[in-house]
Amino acid sequence: MSIIVCDGVSLSYGADIILEKIDFSVNAGDKVGVIGVNGAGKSTLFSIIRGNLDASNGEVFISNGSTVGCLEQINDAHRFGCSIYEAAVSAYGYLIEAEEKISSLRIRMENGDESAIKSFVEENERFINNGGNEFRSKTKSLLSKFGFSESELTKNADSLSGGQKTKLLLVKLLLADPDIMLLDEPTNHLDVQACEWLENYIVASKKTFLIISHDRYFLDKTTNKTLEISHGCSEMYTGNYTQFREKKKALDEAKLKHYNLQQKEIARLEAFIENQRKWNREKNIIAAESRQKTIDKMVKLEKPKEKEKGISFSISHSGAMSKDVLSVRSLSMAYPNNPLFDNLSFEVKRGERLFVIGANGCGKSTLLKILTGRATQIGGIFELGYNQTIGYYDQEQQLLNQNSNVIDEIWSVYSDKTNTQIRSMLAQFGFRGDDVFKSISVLSGGERARLSIAKMVACGVSLLILDEPTNHLDIDSREMLENALLEYDGTIIAVSHDRYFIRTLATSILEIDKDGFDSGYCHCNCGYDRYISTRKKNEPIIIKSESGSGKADFEASKQRKNQLRSAKTRHGAIENEISQLEQELYELKQKENEDSIVSDYAALNELYERENATEAKIDALYKELEDIEEILSTYNE
User: Fold this and answer.
1) pLDDT, tens digit, for every residue of 446-459?
2) Based on the structure, what is the number of domains in the chain?
3) Within this chain, do residues 146 and 183 fall inside the same structural domain, yes or no?
4) Region class of 573: left (phi > 0), else alpha (psi between -120 and 50), else beta
5) Which of 114, 303, 355, 610 pairs with 155 at a CA distance of 20 to 30 A?
6) Where are the alpha helices (DSSP H) in 458-594?
7) Cα separation, 116 vs 181, whole angstroms
């Protein structure tokens, strides 16, 4: 059954057409990925669906009784006017009001007003049935999953960064649990763990989702339909992003083939008509008119529209270079009260594409700043190989002169090139016509990203160091960047949260996690899928380098011993936790028979809730114990 229907929705401002002929329907429970280049009108479509913007033509129908919630893209200027916890828990406004009403009724009963008893019992029962006993703990739990610690909850929400505010609004939306959720770039600023949690939530949910995202990995995991917005029009496809891309390619090729065949047939008929008319005899005129009628009766196929122009470029290296690109030994970094990594050691060889992953705040970007001389380590050393030239991409685009314009910014680096050469290069990165004279201060995030890449790669480099290069890029631009990096024969060290990007390019992985590994990190010579598959199974991550050197074998053996010791330690800790929780559960069950509890409905209900929570913890610990015992058995084989 359709829960959303868009029928001929169009929007224009004067001669500027933003959307036209938007026709699609979404069934209840569908998860729809909404894709298109930057500026295609995706966020505008969301505003129309929500009723915040009136369409010029057409209508949007929402199923009766269905509620709509939206996660919008915001900036640092967004204001909450309350604490982090208050902003999140406000999603349960109806329960907070009920709580206050119950409190008022309780006071009346305590003051001897017997008429309040019936209302109190009814309101309290309704409150409990609607989740009144759990909504505050549920709020704190969800905030924790998105990186907000208990100590931060009283912090003023207005002091958060734009990314943190986005995460807070996402928490509030998920707690509100509307029937239809419109998510506009939900994975922006989320680390991998938070992305994976959100993926699992969406997949398990029976709600309806429309998701604008450039995160192809996220779309593949969560969506079962794909809505493409292109040239103001829409087309719905069955399947996730990867399936859409395959179907789209085949469909575009078929459309172009049919169009060309029809044009060829029309040209053949027109040539026949022209030839017959030259003879100007009756039978020739009749034959010509017959063929003209054939042409007139044809359903003319529209010429497939050309793909919207994005970026298209290549990267060259800077000549001869050594096989040993980088050697990092015992590198350590910390800020006051914030240790990042310690005793970090790894090597990078020519042609390798190393991706650095880990949770937000683990020190990934700081590591890149150290390697490029923009920060200084507190311990250890690193050495670059012979004749290495570095191209550095900063995710914050701080390497751009805000007082300059696009063409002058490139000219400041490549003063030997002509105006035509500079403009030709900028066109490869999507800056055409008057765009080259735009002030850098007014560029969008995506435009800044493209200009930074252009500035970095125009002259050859042997080592690319990239910090979140796909942020702000649309899908087409990301794929262009991937293709250029795949063809690049130099070396890459990159930090990214874009798992599709990592999966496409990575030849080795460095994960920084001071709590997850005894050494604080794990360095493996393998692709992303293989690494994550092994990591999720909690199996020993032992992946030898191609050289099979003694040093690699030694490091693998050391890692295996560390993981065995960690598994044994956790096994003992779990057994102790289970013992303590089972004793706690026994004591809770004993309290059920106490006279003071039996006669107090609220206290008895609270006791049941604590018992259920304790039993759930015990079940989870037994499951973890089984997983660890399975891991330990692999060491004994």
Assistant:
1) 677 778 777 777 66
2) 5
3) no
4) alpha
5) 610
6) 475-487, 499-505, 528-536, 550-591
7) 39
